[in-house]
Amino acid sequence: VEAVHLIADGKAPRIPQPKEGATYEGIQKKENAEISWDQPAAALHNWIRGHDKVPGAWTTINGQVVTFYGSSLLDASVPAGQELTIKGASRPGLVTKNGLVVFGNDGKMVLVRNLQFEDGKMIPASKYFSADETTALELTEEEKKMAEDIR
Q1: In terms of pTM, does the model score above 0.70?
Q2: Which of 4, 5, 40, 151 is at a distance of 20 to 30 A from 55, taking alpha carbons?
Q3: Is 113 exposed, middle or buried (0-12, 13-18, 19+ CB in 10 A)?
Q4: What is the DSSP string of 27-67?
Q5: DSSP state at residue 6
Q6: CA angle 101, 113, 34 (to 5 degrees)
Q7: CATH (residue range 29-133)
Q8: CA dist 71 to 56, 139, 144, 146, Å?
Q9: What residue ranges do the domains of the chain occupy?
Q10: Spatial distance between the Cα atoms of 127 and 113, rounded to a whole number of angstroms
Q11: 99: left (phi over 0), alpha (psi -120 to 50) or beta
């Protein structure tokens, strides 16, 4: 009641908020979102999901910054996949049909569904090794004629 009366009378103390710690913007910087691999799988999952979508948890793979999106804990036997060396990880990841499997320091697994490269290109993690493959569009004779008519 006393506080309400002080405010009503215009006599309430005014203490300016300090600038330090006044915003969350400092936390959401990309340089602060690098994945530290010396953690259990649950902590890795929480880190990746906690930075999903902004700014995105990232690591270095083959000298390139790769951002991870859409993680989930994987409680199963180790799936078959192609090994992928990840900088700082004690064990290589596995590119599987469901995504990229990474390992915590406790041996448990995290499944990452999407990867984004430095150039902004996002792919399903399961397509990591086929990301650079491009297929040429081949037209039939009928389609070539139609394309020429459209031109």
Answers
A1: no
A2: 40
A3: middle
A4: TT-GGGGBPPSSS-HHHHHHHHHHTTTTT-EEEEETTEEEE
A5: H
A6: 75
A7: 3.10.25.10
A8: 11, 39, 44, 45
A9: 29-133
A10: 10
A11: left
Q: What is the pLDDT along the chain (151 residues), one digit of tens a residue?
A: 999 999 999 999 988 877 776 665 555 778 888 999 999 999 999 999 988 888 889 999 988 999 999 999 999 899 999 999 999 998 999 999 999 999 999 999 999 999 999 888 999 999 998 855 445 567 788 888 888 888 8
Cβ distance 67 to 54 under 8 Å? no
Q: 72-106 burial by CB neighbour count: b if 16+ within 10 A, else e? A: eebeeeeeebeebebeebeeebbbbebbbbbbbee
CB proximity list for 22: less than 8 A, separation 6 or greater: none
Q: Which amino acid does the sequence have at 55? A: P
Task: Render 73-138 in DSSP notation, one character per residue.
Answer: EE-SSPPP-EEE--TT-SS-EEEETTEEEEE-TTS-EEEEEEEEETTS-EEEGGGGGGTT------
pLDDT tens track for 132-145 = 544 556 778 888 88
